[in-house]
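User: Sequence recovery, please. Input:
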């Protein structure tokens, strides 16, 4: 684009509401509702360069992606049982994700010989993300504590813009990036020696797993 100052603005109200109920000294249920917002951005560079027609204000044609918006719901249970020797938490969530900003390549000369190689930032998709997370920690003995967590995420694109589909007809088959369906970790801490005056010796072992994910 011609050198100059370009500006866009956007506003959003992002409330967050949470309620909880402690139905026992060791257990609490909760629910929450929240909205998220991510500002937009410009497509910084084109090739071949964009030259506005005479009398055209460059600010009227500069490419800009509007903000992303997400609405999230979550319910869960937190508990500490057996004189706080066992901690068990579980939660379920659902997120409605709109106007997702995606960078994809376009062909600057249409059906010409250059090909689709110019990156453009655009609001190109909506998505739905839902899942469940479980985490627990247990004091097996005075010298041994075990902990772990398990997560499941079901994330999928719901709709794509007409321009995104024109450039990528297979877009409905795309997977959301960086969202493995399964995550798992387990660990343990063993206290080998603990003395208030002489010090402490501990051993920690961890294992983590992620299922395949699209980058």
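Assistant: Recovered sequence (215 residues):
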């Amino acid at each position: 684009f011609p050198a100059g100052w370009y500006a866009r603005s956007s506003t959003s109200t992002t409330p967050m509401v949470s309620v909880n109920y402690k139905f026992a000294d060791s257990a609490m249920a909760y629910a929450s509702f929240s909205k998220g917002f991510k500002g937009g951005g410009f497509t910084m560079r084109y090739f071949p360069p964009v030259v506005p027609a005479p009398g055209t204000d460059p600010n009227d044609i500069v490419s800009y992606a509007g903000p992303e918006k997400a609405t999230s719901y979550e319910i869960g249970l937190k508990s500490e049982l057996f004189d706080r020797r066992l901690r068990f938490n579980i939660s379920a969530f659902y997120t409605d994700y709109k106007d997702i900003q995606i960078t994809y390549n376009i062909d600057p000369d249409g059906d010409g010989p250059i090909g689709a190689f110019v990156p453009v930032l655009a609001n190109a998709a909506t998505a739905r993300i839902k899942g469940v997370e479980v985490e627990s920690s247990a004091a097996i003995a005075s010298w041994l504590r075990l902990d772990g967590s398990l997560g499941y995420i079901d994330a999928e694109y719901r709709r794509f813009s007409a321009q995104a589909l024109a450039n990528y007809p297979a877009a409905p088959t795309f997977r959301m990036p960086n969202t493995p369906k399964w995550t798992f970790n387990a660990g343990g801490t063993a206290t080998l020696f603990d003395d208030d005056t002489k010090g402490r010796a501990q051993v920690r072992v961890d294992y983590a797993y992620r299922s395949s994910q699209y980058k």
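The mean pLDDT is 89.
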